[in-house]
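Researcher: I'm comparing several assemblies side by side, and this is the next one on my list. It has 1481 residues spread over two chains. Same procedure as the others: predict the full complex and return the structure.
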Amino acid sequence: MSDYTDLMEFSVTAQGEWVVIVGTQEARTIADIISLAPNASPMNWADILNELASGGDYEVIEDPAAFRTAYEATMAEEDPEKGWSQDAMRLRDFGIPNFDEINVPRINGGTLVYFARDIYTGLPYRAEILLSNAAAEPAYAPLDLMPTPEPAAHVPPVMEVPDDEADDESFLGERAPFPDEPTGDEG
Amino acid sequence: MAKKSAKEHKDEGSALGALIAKARKKPHNFALVIAKDDGVVLEADPRKAAAVMWRQAKANGGTSKGTMGTFLVRGKVLEFTVEGDDPPPKILLMQTKKHLKDRGLAFKVAFVMPGGESITDDEDDKEEPSKTGAKEDAGGEQDTDAGTDDRVELLTAKIKELAVGVKKLGAINKSAASKLADGLKKASAAVASGKFSSAETTTIMVAKALQAMGVSSGKPATEDRDGGSPTVPDIDTDAMRETVEKAYKEIESKLGAIKEAGETAVSKKAVQLEAAYANFLKSEDFQKATGLVNLAKSFVDKEYAKLEKSSSGFMDTLSEMASDAVDTVKEVVSDVAEAADDFIDSLTPDGRLKLELQKLGYSDEEQDRIVAALETVPDEQKATLKKLAEKNPKSFEAAMITLKELEAGGAVEASAEKIAEGKTALDTAQKAEAEKFAALGVANVALQELKNGNPAPNSDWAKGLAAAEAAEKAWKDFNDALPDLASMAESERNEAMLKGMELDRLRKEAAQAAEEAKARDIKAAEDVAAAAKGEHDTAKEGTKAASDDLKKKEAKRGILDAITVGPLSPNHGAPFDDAVSAKFIEGFQKDPGLTAKAIESATGARHPEAVANALGGIADNLSAGFADKDGKTLPEGEDPRAYAEKLIQTGSYCGPEYFDKLDAYISSGAHLEDSGFKAIPTDKSNERAQKRSVATASAMIDGDGNLDVESEAAQKAVGNLLFHPDAMKHPMPTMSDTTLRTLEELKKPKAGEIINGMTKPAVGGGAEELVGRAVGVTGPVSADQAKTAVLATMMKSLDQGPVGSCFSTAPSRNLREGQPLVAMEKYAEIASTGKLTTAKGPKTPVVTETPPGEDPIMRSFEYTLATSLARNEASTQFKKIQDRNAAGAAAIRGDVAAAMGKEEPEVGKDIAKILLQVRKGFEIQYDPNAKLDGVSSDGHSSQGRHVLVEKATKTVITSREKFVAAVTPMVLKALGLEADSDAAKALKPKIEAEFVDAMVRTKQVTKPDGTTETVVDRAPWKMASGGQTGEAVEQLFGETDYNVAVGENYAVVGGKEVPKSNTRAKQGARTAKVLENLVGTFGADPADMIVIRTVGIHGFNAMPNDPSLKPILEGEGTVEDRIKSTLIDPGAKIASEDMPVEQTQKYYDEKVAASRKHVERWISEASTPHEKQRLEGFLGDYDTAAKDNRPTEGKTPTELADLIKTVRTAAHFSKPDAGRDSMAAEMITDLGAPEVVIADTNWGDSTYHVYIVAAPDPMSGEVILWKKYDPPGTRKVLDPKWIDASWASMIPKP
């Protein structure tokens, strides 16, 4: 039986405004919520504050084991033969977190600590906020990552200046076909 | 000791000649003593002490009468500056001159005392009878190049011919005939004494005089009675004196005026002329006096005019004097004028040249040197040389001297063909040497094998050994088979004993024979090895000779090109300034080959003046073997010349700061020690750069872990990076340049704060990984190693690396170049913490996956910034989708209420659930291959757009249908509705219509027929496209102003957008427009770099403060006016004017030769004899066309390109016009086309960098954009599509 008596829920007004419903009360900011001091679960706190603070850039890691499984599965799908590319976000380019460090949201001494996944990079961040400080915002810090064990196998070509098609040098030594030379279209 | 033979004199003369040539260049120490037997002994050397040579000279000469000191040759004077206060004995001077003369060397001798007093042989000249008995002219000498039988014969015949005429004249005018006869006598005497020029002068004078008096000189009617010298009448010297004096009087007053009012040098010249005239008159040498008066006339005419210009009052006076002079001239009798003209006309070609040089202000000595040097110059280049002589006399003179010296050992042919032959000869010689070396190796191995006791198979020794073994075996077998002696009868014992003795003898003989065979075989092998060594030595000498020969040819070619078409030439469009040219000329005198290379490096380089200033010092270093302060030189195996050339190449990019450090470095001897680079031969360029920079950076951290760039160790390490022979094997100019600039930054206190404050990277983290890879260690790294890694990154140019992204590199490079220490803070953060802080978004863990060999810190910075940017851009895009989702949800709010059986105000939580569910159901990704609406033609970085992906199925949402299919279940799930429920069925159409419609943004577009239509602009399946350069700038610098300079200039053809500027003329107009508008976005006080982009193509940096832009940014008129005057007008001029003929021919010859090689290749690659035959026919046609079309006069660039096209057409090239742009690119420098640096591309590495410049195309005259590779400063036309893109600049807000 949970000791938590309050549940915070999101709602959208007819004008499109997001509000947090705590019982019969409405809050629109983190400061409003902290001043209401709801007796909500750490998970509920984390979900609501994360949403209000990041606007959806992070999602709270509710199940660390599932996060680890998904993280490792994603890395396994990434081709170790390929190197970094601006065109693809790859976990192995950054490394592996200490998964033991990642826990479900907790409140200790009035401080909420939760772990969140950056939804764009997939990398884990640690967020922390003092729930007694109405002016506080969750502070997100990336976890230390250990480089991917596999050696960098991909050897990209040396960077070359683009050679334009208009460059006429490439035709300098090209011979015209003999008038009677087969072109390959015949026969 | 007997007098020396003529041959001995001749040989000694050659040696003395060589010594004199050297002493012209630099002073020599000398010792000179009278020889006991013959002449004098002269010992001279630039380095040996005079006292040492004094002992040597005394020993060789057998007397101690002489002197010592410093010896120099000026013109025709050997100038001995003697040591001590006592003048040398007069006899020494006379003996020395005689010594020289006996050896065919006509020189004056002067002893200069320490106080400056000069003892010369002038007086002796007048008194000393010549060998022939004829009196020498004062200061004159025999025509050393004449004296041939032909000249004697011709002059004798002429004198005889004239004698007939004089004889005829005698019948009419005896007095005149008498004077002319005197002249012919003198001519005859001159022939006899070898003074042919003088004889020619006189005969021409006599001929003219005869002609003036109406007497024809005819063939001699008869030979003289004695058949010897013709009988000649006398000439009247009084009349000649009168004539000369009259002529001189004509100019005397002007000469006086010049003497009084002319510039110092000019006035001095006037004094000299006056004095010389007086001397000639005194010595009654009226011929020379007449010549001198004519020279003086030329001089007066030239200098008088200058005085007129400089002073109006003085001009009036001069006008009066000129008027008087005219009157005086009228009074001069016609034969005087004729005589003077005759004198000039009669001069030899060399003499005429000297007169011209005299007019140009050359001294007598200089004239002599130049005339001698010009003998070796091809006729075709003399016109240009004359121009050079007028424009830059000193350059001309020095170049001529150098050419002469280059050919001291014989004529050097330096045509392209001869150089090609030289290369082939060197190649052949090198191959031969390699073969001989291999043969020597084989011979040595064979010999060693023998010495090791291993006979060659089937050799005499092998056979001998086999025989010895057999004999030994036979003897042994016999002994073993012997029965007990006691059991044998005596006869059997005797027989056995005899047999045994016989076998013993045989085995000993066989052993002996084998030993002898061994000795013979070894001797033969030694002979073979010795012969092989001899052949190898000969081959080595052949290689050296071929190499020396080629170097001479290339040096001569370099000099001639430099002074006829290169930047030392008056023909060159952008010649070096006079001071730079003078330095190069000095270099020619020190080391022609190195100077030719230096000019090559300096042409079009960033710092030609630095090269010119450093050249002399490097040549000295080269000549001394790059010796350190203790005299220790580069070790065997290092090529000092190649080393010197690479130093110059690198310095031409880095500038004077580079060369300034060189001497101290060489003197320290650091170049003779281990570089510490730890490079291996297989290292790639980026690996070498990393190792060098790490070696340098590690020396900048002191024992306490603090930054110290001025310690001895740091200075030495920097020197190694800049100059060490290991570094020069693979020069890295851009890294050297970056290092030099960075050193100044690292001296600032802020640099120390950053570096000293760095901490040890966490064990096992990303920072440790990057630092370890940077410094080449695995496992835990120290704080000092992290500092080293950061400093190593600072040594290198930040360029776009492999798989790099231009939109990230552009602002990164901007930061690195504009705020180096801020960039270093970022590097330090990466290396210490493994995180990167940017102006926007959260800290990002660093990318640790960097390409092997690349600088891990630099690449991690670039990649992490790109990742951080991409993350934030994705966030922005995704939030826009959320906003549209909200609009969609609002549109169906009533329908949701109906489906849920609630009142509309009660569904707030349901709407929130829908929005959260939909957001969690999708993710956003970047698709590099998504088709863009606009042009997508990035040369390097991919261009794409973000796409929405349904998480559950990984479906990429590319259409409305896919979005509807994905979003509908999400909405239903959020509301807890079963898909087949009535409520869901009622809601689905609303989701498909109203919900989705509310998420779409539309726009009106105009169709080709002029009508408009509404199209989807943005939707979840059509997200924003485009580059991210602007976003990257914001990511790094914060809020940024985005300024569009010009919009795109595309047309729609066949449904595709294509650039409108499809001709050079349109490209020129567009370039001017882009340039004008781009500089308009820079603002009043721009930074050195501003990030710009060509939309859809590239992100890079403009360089507003590059000096080349100044004429456009500042000055009279509008920017448009200044672009016209700076770029457009000069371009039109260059395109329409003929190039000098030498330059025209140089380009033609080079291009024709290059294309010919392709035809030769076709022939070599022909697959059938028939094909080969046809191609050989092409080659024949090509050669004919090449010969027929070779220009003999200057052409415009286009005319020249057309000629080359004609020739290439003859050989059936597929694109005969190919190469036009590359030739145009070469011409930009040669023709002095203006050039404006537009931007830094981010492209390059530690060895070069690429810029974008605007310059006229010399063919069309239109201003277009070029890629400029620096070093070496070459250009390529930039794809014209760039100019039609939209251009924009991004400037961070203050």
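Model: For your comparison table: The first helix of chain B runs from residue 6 to 25.
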